[in-house]
Amino acid sequence: MSTVDLQNIKKSFGDVEVIKSFNATFEDGEFVTLLGPSGCGKTTLLRMVAGFEKPTSGQLCIGGKIMSSDQVFVPPEKRQIGMVFQSYAVWPHMNVFDNIAYPLKIQKMNKQVIKEKTDRVLKVVHLDKYRDRFPSQLSGGQQQRIALGRALVAEPELLLLDEPLSNLDAKLRDSMRYEIKKISKELGITVIFVTHDQTEAMTMSDKIIILNRGVIQQAGAPYEIYHRPVNQFVADFIGKINLIKAHYADEMITVDGTDIRLPHAACKHEHVVLAVRPENIILQKEETNIPAVVDDIYFLGETTDIFLRLGDQVVRCMAESHAYAEYAVGDRVYLRLKDYLVYDDGDTEEQLEIVT
């Protein structure tokens, strides 16, 4: 069992409150990503799970055992945790086998057991053909797999990943996302992954927890978070989105500076924001109640990026590739919205308010 349970976890550094009461349970075998902007508290949370930081208050359990509370604090080396950092931290003077076997050697395990465990992990991370090579003879992705193998060889209950892909080039990063996800599923291990990269979070996670200013903004499956963000911050942080200024009256939303009107149920504020993903804006030449003018257009190969003017506002539309040949700057077009959300628009606190 490697369930992680965090109850009322708070963390302050001096007068600065970094985590403002974190409550969550990460289920056995679940791949959980902590996602948010720099300074939101995600790395601090990971370090508390690892035991490198002690919570100011609250209780943290791993596998049903208390690791941190007001009375208990278990040090990192006794938590049965594997961790992979942003830097590879591989030993340059050791070959691949010895790098991965190192945690077992310092535990003074039997040589045959070390060989069996290390050989198994070498196959899992696809490095068995490179067992005798040194890190300088390997690519960045292979070195990162050494670090991953070293974290797995001691058979930890929990694997913690702190932005392990950020130093890789785009192609390697893309392939390693799937490698890590596949390995975690094969081993049935619980993973907590810290990143600021939305694509990594969406690709790899069973659950994403979005943090801002030390507070959970939303927790859920990637599909749910992408299509139903609970507030304006999450909508703007995850993926591309148009936040169109509008105002509300008599169960109708009117886009600011236009005659465009859309029916909608009650809003608390007169001023609202219409949140629409670019792929949910459908261009057509047949007239609808949403006219627009093409402001700019870019060919991206498999898609066409089109910027449209609605009054004084510009919105972005992701259209099919052939749209580049069908539309030009200055064309009058009409829009159909496949899906959209409406948020009350106010100060920062109101934009962070969880919509229920």
Brief write-up:
The chain has helices at residues 42-50, 96-106, 111-124, 140-152, 170-187, 198-204, 222-227, 232-237, 323-326, 348-352, and strands spanning 4-13, 16-26, 31-35, 57-62, 65-68, 81-84, 158-162, 190-195, 207-212, 215-220, 242-249, 252-255, 261-263, 271-276, 281-284, 291-299, 303-310, 313-320, 332-337, 341-344. It is of the alpha+beta class.
Determine the fraction of residues in helical runs and give it as a percent range: 25-40%
The amount of beta strand, in percent, is 25-35%
Q: Which spans have pLDDT < 50 for at least 5 consecutive residues?
A: none
Order of helices and strands: EEEHEEEHHHEHEHEEHHEEEEEEEEHEEH
Shape: flat
**Rg from alpha-carbon coordinates:** 25 Å
Distance between the termini: 33 Å
Give the overall pLDDT as a whole number. 90
Category from helices, strands and their pairing: alpha+beta
The tally of beta strands, per DSSP, is 20
Strand count, sense and closure of the main sheet? 6 strands, mixed
Molecular structure report:
With 356 residues, this protein is an alpha+beta fold. The protein is 26% helix and 35% strand. The chain has helices spanning 42-50, 96-106, 111-124, 140-152, 170-187, 198-204, 222-227, 232-237, 323-326, 348-352; strands spanning 4-13, 16-26, 31-35, 57-62, 65-68, 81-84, 158-162, 190-195, 207-212, 215-220, 242-249, 252-255, 261-263, 271-276, 281-284, 291-299, 303-310, 313-320, 332-337, 341-344. The strands form 4 sheets. The protein has a 6-stranded mixed β-sheet, with helices on both faces. β1 and β2 form a beta hairpin. The model has no long low-confidence stretch (mean pLDDT 90).
